[in-house]
Amino acid sequence: MTISIYDASIPVFKQMLSSMSQILSKAEIHANAKKIDPAVFLQSRLYPDMFPLVRQVQIAADFAKGVSARLANVEVPAYIDNEQNFADLQTRINTTLAFIQSLTPEQLKGSETREIVTRPGTPKEKKFTGQSYLLSYGLPQFFFHINATYAILRHNGVEIGKGDYMGTV
C-alpha cells in the first residue's frame, strides 16, 4: 500500500494544530478561572534552557507551514514572531491552518523525490528528498514542539490529557 506525501502531512498538521488550539483554549480558561496572569503560562518552560510556551507554538506553526510549502514547491509564508497573548497564538494557528488547507494533493504530488534544501548557503544547510524531509525531519520537529506545548501546560496544572493532545482524528 502506498500513502501520498499529502496524506502523510497535511491531515497530520491539521489535526495537531487543531488540538494545540484547543489545548491553548483550555489553558486560557484555566488561567482566568484560577486568576493566573496568562503571561505566566505564555512564558513558562520546562527547564531554563528551553524555549517558553509562546515560542514552542510559533515553531510548531512554522514547521507546519514550512514543511507544507516546501513539499508543495511554493513560497513559505513569512510570519513576524510578535505574539503576546493567547488570542495572538490562536491567530497564528488559524493563519497556518488556512495556508495548509489551501494546498491541494496535486501540489504535493511527486514531492517525495524532489530535493528539499534547508538553510541553503549556510553552515547548517541540509539536503533531503521530500519524503526524507517530511518523515525524518519535518514531522519529528513539529511533534517535538507540539509535545513541549502540551507538557508545559500540563506541568502548570492545566487539566488536559492524551485525548486533548491527539485531538479529533
List the helices and strands and how they pair.
Elements lengths: L4 H29 L4 H5 L10 H20 L13 H17 L2 H4 L6 E4 L7 E4 H26 L6 H5 L3
Antiparallel strand pairs: 1-2
Describe what you observe in this structure.
With 169 residues, the chain is mainly alpha-helical. It has a single domain, classed as dinb family like domain (Four Helix Bundle (Hemerythrin (Met), subunit A)). Helices cover 63% and strands 5% of the residues. The protein has helices spanning 5-33, 38-42, 53-72, 86-102, 105-108, 130-155, 162-166, and strands at 115-118, 126-129. A two-stranded antiparallel ribbon has the order 1-2. A hairpin with a 7-residue loop joins strand 1 (115-118) and strand 2. The longest helix is centred in the N-terminal third of the chain and has 29 residues, at 5-33. The chain is globular, with a radius of gyration of 16 Å. 32% of the residues are buried. The model has no long low-confidence stretch (mean pLDDT 96).
| Rg over CA atoms | 16 Å
Q: Please tally the β strands and state the result.
A: 2
CATH T-level topology:
Four Helix Bundle (Hemerythrin (Met), subunit A)
- The helix fraction, in percent, is 55-70%
Average of per-residue pLDDT values: 96
Relevant CATH superfamily: dinb family like domain
CATH architecture assignment: Up-down Bundle
Please give the order of strands in the largest beta sheet. 1-2
Order of helical and strand elements: HHHHHEEHH
Short description:
The protein is mainly α. 63% of the residues lie in helices and 5% in strands.
